[in-house]
Every structure is written in structure tokens, then in C-alpha cells.
């Protein structure tokens, strides 16, 4: 393992955490991992106390958004120790996102090793309740100071951790989602497949308007024809139509290659379901709802895990999904994925990286 220097915090913020009401991304643990890219290489890997950083007003990322992030979780294993769920996929996706916005690649093994070391140091921050976990948020951004529009020369990778409960206030209860025909998140040829700030900034206005109308999230359609379904932004989307599980394909390059998305597709195949990644139009979903073949709709994501959709609204028309209740498939996916993550179900795919803390 590369040398990671450790500077421990004096004291801890842990007592300022409301462990009975964690919510998502509200509390931050005591330490972060940090690495700097300078003179063409990554180095000075260190774990230091979490705290404010000094930033120059001319720092390019504040102006041009050359930044990417990841999201993964550490779980307490039922027999002791900690489980990371498919962190290699996050490491690979970090570098995919980076390549899309001219950010130099970070060593994928070091990424996972750094996470393990950080989690060990802040092990007392790992929530022990079922449904809760220690969320890991790596962020990597251009840190040079200039105003010309070009890639940064220097970068910083910071990995912070946050004890979290469920992403949605609804928990595993179905959420209502507005299908946007006004705003778009990403277009083919754009940054939709990268976990970069621009996609999330593009979702803010549509998301805020949807929230005013009582919806939890927006389902984005493709930015050109406004007919193909893309994703929700905080999660990918899945439809059970008849006995088939269908989800938008990665090929158009406009959606994120979700780790939970891939997990769900693999499990569904294991269980003998027909699975298809393909273009899906919103009209097809309306028709399937009318003819009764649309059985379930649910989102998949690291933060959200599995989030059943109870209602989809498109151009003023409400589609009630599965009577507004969680469906059997979504429930089985949630139970299986969380069972694997907490070490309750045998991992036959090599998805879990277990370590002692
Ligand atoms: C995640 O699922 O980890 C995400 O990054 C989604 C969201 C919180 C931005």
C-alpha cells in the first residue's frame, strides 16, 4: 500500500450527531483522505482532520465546474468488521467521469485502500442500525487559479465520510416523480454519463419546481427528442413491463452507469427474469400503464438503494404504479442487496470487500 500519512484530529464531532435522525449527508465524520495532483503526478496522500479549506477566489472549478464525485457506502457486517460494496466499480467510474472532463486518472487500488484506511480511523462513525451506513463521498476537482477556459493544471481528491440513514424522507415507501417535459438534464454527446457537477446543476431548477408541486424527484427525458427516458439524477430507473425488467441503455451516453443498476440487472438475470437494456419512450410507459402491463417502477442508486415509484406524472396525466405500493420485485431487490451489504446473504459474485476495523 502507498504510504498515507495520518494526522489525527484533537477531539471528535461525534457527540454533535443526532444518531436517532441521521437523514442523508447532514453529518461529516472527523477525518478526510486527501491527495494532490501537481507537476503531472498524484502525491502527498494523507488523512487529516475534516475542516474548512482555504480557496482562492480565482480557483477554476468555482468558475467552470471541472469537478467529479463518487458515492459508495461502508456497512457493518453482521459477523463483525466492515463491508464495502463493489468499490472497484466506483473507482473505475471516477476515472471514466474524469476522462470526460479532462481530469487525470487516480490509481484505482489506492482509491480503495485509502477508503479502507479512512473507514478504519473513523470506525466509531459507522452506524450500527439496519438501513444505515457510512456514506463515502470522494470529490475530485481542478484546484489551479486562473480565468481562462481550459483544464486545470493541479487537482485535489478529497474523500469524506458521512453517517447516513435513507436518502428519501419516504424511506422504502413509494415516491412520486414528475416526468419533465420542460427542462433537460443531459444530451447525447454531453456529460450525462459522468458524475460531474454540471448534471446536478442542470437538475436544480426542474427539481425545485417539482418539489413545489409535491414530487420527490424528476424523471428526465432525453434532451433532443424529449421522448426517451434517461434517469432520475439521484438514481437510475427500472420498469417491470409484463415479466420483463427494462431499463434505459447506457449506449446513448446520457445516463450514469449505476453500480446498483448493474447489481439489479445481474440479480434479475440470476433469478431467471428477462432483462433488457434498451431505449424506452415515455409513450411506451403510458401505453403499458393503460393496458395493465406496467407492473412496477423503481429507482436504483447507492444513496437511494431501491426506491419504488408510486406515481409518475407526465403532461398533467397521473400514472398510479402498482396501486401506489411497493411491488414484490422492488422489495426482493431491496432485501437481497441490503442482505448482501450487511453480510447476511452469501456473496456469490465477489461484490463485497470485507475488512476488519
Ligand atoms: C449516490 O447515489 O451515491 C449519489 O451520488 C446520488 C446523489 C446523492 C447525488
Task: Describe it.
The chain has 357 residues and is of the alpha+beta class. The chain folds into two domains: 5-164, D-amino Acid Aminotransferase, Chain A, domain 1; 175-337, D-amino Acid Aminotransferase, Chain A, domain 2. It contains eight helices and 17 strands. The strands form two sheets. Strands 1, 2, 3, 4, 5, 6, 7, 8 and 17 form a nine-stranded mixed sheet that branches. Strands 9, 10, 11, 12, 13, 14, 15 and 16 form an eight-stranded mixed sheet that branches. The longest helix has 14 residues, at 87-100. The model has no long low-confidence stretch (mean pLDDT 97). Bound molecules: 2-OXO-4-methylpentanoic acid.
Write the layout of secondary structure elements.
Elements: E1 5-6, E2 31-38, E3 41-49, H1 60-64, E4 67-69, E5 72-76, E6 82-85, H2 87-100, H3 108-121, E7 133-142, E8 155-164, E9 175-179, H4 197-202, H5 204-212, E10 217-219, E11 236-241, E12 244-247, H6 259-270, E13 274-277, H7 282-290, E14 294-301, E15 305-314, E16 317-320, H8 328-341, E17 352-355
Parallel strand pairs: 1-3, 9-10, 9-15, 12-13
Antiparallel strand pairs: 2-3, 2-8, 4-7, 5-6, 5-7, 6-17, 7-8, 11-12, 11-14, 14-15, 15-16
Output the CATH topology of the largest domain: D-amino Acid Aminotransferase, Chain A, domain 2
Q: Spans of 5+ residues with little confidence (pLDDT < 50)?
A: none
In the CATH classification, which architecture of the largest domain applies?
A: Alpha-Beta Barrel
Count every helix, treating DSSP H or I runs of 4 or more residues as helices.
8
Q: Pairing-aware structural class of the strands and helices? A: alpha+beta
Helical content band:
10-25%
Largest sheet: 9 strands, mixed
Instruction: Return Rg in Å.
Output: 20 Å
The CATH class of the largest domain, by name, is Alpha Beta
Any idea what the shape is? globular
CATH superfamily assignment of the largest domain?
D-amino Acid Aminotransferase, subunit A, domain 2
Amino acid at each position: 500500500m502507498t504510504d498515507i500519512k495520518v494526522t489525527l484530529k484533537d477531539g471528535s464531532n461525534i457527540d454533535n450527531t443526532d444518531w436517532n435522525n441521521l437523514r442523508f449527508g447532514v453529518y461529516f465524520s472527523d477525518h478526510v483522505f486527501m491527495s494532490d495532483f501537481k507537476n503531472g503526478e498524484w502525491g502527498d496522500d494523507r488523512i487529516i482532520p475534516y475542516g474548512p479549506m482555504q480557496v482562492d477566489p480565482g480557483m477554476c472549478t468555482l468558475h467552470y465546474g471541472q469537478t467529479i464525485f463518487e458515492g459508495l457506502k461502508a456497512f457493518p457486517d453482521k459477523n463483525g468488521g466492515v463491508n464495502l460494496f463493489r468499490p472497484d466499480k466506483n473507482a473505475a467510474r471516477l476515472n471514466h467521469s474524469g476522462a470526460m472532463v479532462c481530469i487525470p486518472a487516480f490509481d484505482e487500488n489506492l482509491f480503495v485502500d485509502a477508503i479502507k484506511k479512512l473507514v478504519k480511523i473513523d470506525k466509531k462513525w459507522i452506524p450500527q442500525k439496519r438501513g444505515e451506513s457510512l456514506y463515502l463521498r470522494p470529490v475530485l476537482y481542478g484546484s489551479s487559479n486562473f480565468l481562462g477556459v481550459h483544464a486545470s493544471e493541479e487537482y485535489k481528491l478529497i474523500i469524506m465520510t458521512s453517517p447516513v440513514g435513507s436518502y428519501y424522507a419516504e424511506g422504502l415507501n413509494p415516491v412520486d416523480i414528475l416526468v419533465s417535459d420542460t427542462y433537460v438534464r443531459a444530451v447525447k454527446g454531453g456529460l450525462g454519463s459522468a458524475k460531474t457537477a454540471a448534471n446536478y446543476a442542470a437538475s436544480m431548477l426542474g427539481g425545485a419546481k417539482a418539489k413545489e408541486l409535491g414530487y420527490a424527484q424528476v424523471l428526465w427525458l432525453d434532451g433532443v427528442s424529449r421522448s426517451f427516458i434517461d434517469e432520475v439524477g439521484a438514481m437510475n430507473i427500472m420498469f417491470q413491463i409484463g415479466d420483463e425488467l427494462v431499463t434505459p441503455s447506457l449506449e446513448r451516453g446520457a445516463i450514469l452507469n449505476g453500480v446498483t443498476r448493474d447489481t439489479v440487472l445481474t440479480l434479475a438475470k440470476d433469478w431467471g427474469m428477462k432483462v433488457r437494456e434498451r431505449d424506452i419512450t415515455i409513450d411506451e410507459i403510458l401505453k403499458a400503464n393503460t393496458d395493465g402491463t406496467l407492473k412496477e417502477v423503481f429507482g436504483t442508486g447507492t444513496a437511494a438503494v431501491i426506491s419504488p415509484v408510486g406515481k409518475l406524472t407526465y403532461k398533467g396525466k397521473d400514472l398510479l404504479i402498482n396501486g401506489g405500493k411497493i411491488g414484490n420485485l422492488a422489495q426482493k431487490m431491496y432485501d437481497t442487496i441490503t442482505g448482501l451489504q450487511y453480510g447476511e446473504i452469501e456473496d456469490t459474485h465477489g461484490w463485497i470487500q470485507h475488512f476488519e476495523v
